């Protein structure tokens, strides 16, 4: 059975801190790994990773994939209160378009 | 911008009622999905559809059915609602083979009492 596990499930830090969110997976026919940010409503796409060792970066957010060890990390530097959200990791595996999601990490940034 | 809308943000139903959750997308996407989201469990795929009148079971289809009579609309049906179906329901749509291009609706928080 395909499985995606995120850790920690919940994290509370102070504004300005750097955080690292983890995502490990066990799936058949891996195609890609995706990170989403979910505030109050719909998840919004952050990154798609398909190749090991290549960092994707967008402002203060970055992510990298290790296909040998089957995990990915999402880093956020100089956190702001607007980064407070649930961060979702998903893996596209098996048939095209089908995503397997992890439990999500609820990140809270305190001023 | 792609827009995915869901018929209700909040819904309260009684046990045993038949419940319809509607999802409409305005970008002519072929693929549509229904997920439920529960704390500690993440998003789980209930059903999906690659084309009109086509449907595929996801990981947790029990207790649910779907209908896709038109390309833009994908309905999730709870034939006889139960309390364990209290959850947040998210609809998504996409076009083409790239999974990351799933656009999500705002969600419907369903409470079954």
Task: For this entry, give a set of tags.
heterodimer; A: 111 residues; mainly beta; 5-stranded antiparallel beta sheet; 11 strands; 59% strand; B: 113 residues; 7-stranded mixed beta sheet; 0% helix; 53% strand
Description:
The complex is a heterodimer of chains A (111) and B (113). Chain A has 111 residues and is mostly beta strands. Chain A is 0% helix and 59% strand. The model of chain A has no long low-confidence stretch (mean pLDDT 92). In chain A, 33% of the residues are buried. In chain A, strands 2, 4, 5, 9, 10 and 11 form a six-stranded mixed β-sheet that branches. Chain A has a five-stranded antiparallel β-sheet with strand order 1-3-8-7-6, with no helix packed on it. Chain B is mainly beta and 113 residues long. In chain B, 0% of the residues lie in helices and 53% in strands. Chain B has no helices and eleven strands. Chain B has strands spanning 4-6, 10-13, 19-25, 31-38, 42-49, 56-57, 64-70, 73-78, 87-94, 103-104, 108-112. Chain B is globular and about 40 Å long. The termini of chain B are far apart. The mean pLDDT of chain B is 92. The chains are: A mainly beta (111), B mainly beta (113).
Indicate the topology:
The complex is a heterodimer of chains A (111) and B (113).
Chain A: E1 3-7, E2 10-14, E3 19-26, E4 30-38, E5 44-49, E6 56-58, E7 61-66, E8 71-76, E9 85-93, E10 99-101, E11 105-110
Chain B: E1 4-6, E2 10-13, E3 19-25, E4 31-38, E5 42-49, E6 56-57, E7 64-70, E8 73-78, E9 87-94, E10 103-104, E11 108-112
Parallel strand pairs in B: 2-11
Antiparallel strand pairs in B: 1-3, 3-8, 4-5, 4-9, 5-6, 7-8, 9-10, 9-11
